[in-house]
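Our preliminary data section would be incomplete without showing what the modeling component actually yields. Below, a chain of 131 amino acids is followed by its predicted structure, encoded as tokens that our downstream tools consume directly.
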Amino acid sequence: MSPLNTFTIAGRAMAAQLVRLNTIASNLANAGSVAGTAETAYRALRPVFATRYAGGTATVDVTAVERIGTPDKRSDPNHPLADADGNVWTAAVDANQELVEMVETQRQYANNVEVLSTAKALALDTLRLGR
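Predicted structure:
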């Protein structure tokens, strides 16, 4: 595998983790939000990853960002968004799970930074051999 492929693979993996981190940020920002209907209530976002094979190597792509979870209905007749039955729907976001996802995403991103640093150091050492 050439160094260029190493840089490309790690870069694509970092880009995928950045999408994942952005969805986590959106989920945390909307945790606890309230809506007047189940259809308009916020549902957590999750990226869908897929392996892409090209030129004998494998990289990762984000193929979609899906909405997951079911909003929770609760009775709050005094809420301004309450429907005729006095119900509101809260966002389908588990803040604890999102924080775990954030830590995992950060670790995977950091691993790819380490891969890039190692590949760079090896490339520079190889160039120094030619002097």
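The beta strands are 34-35, 44-54, 57-68, 72-75, 87-90. DSSP finds two helices and five strands in the chain. Preliminary results of this kind motivate Aim 1 of the renewal.
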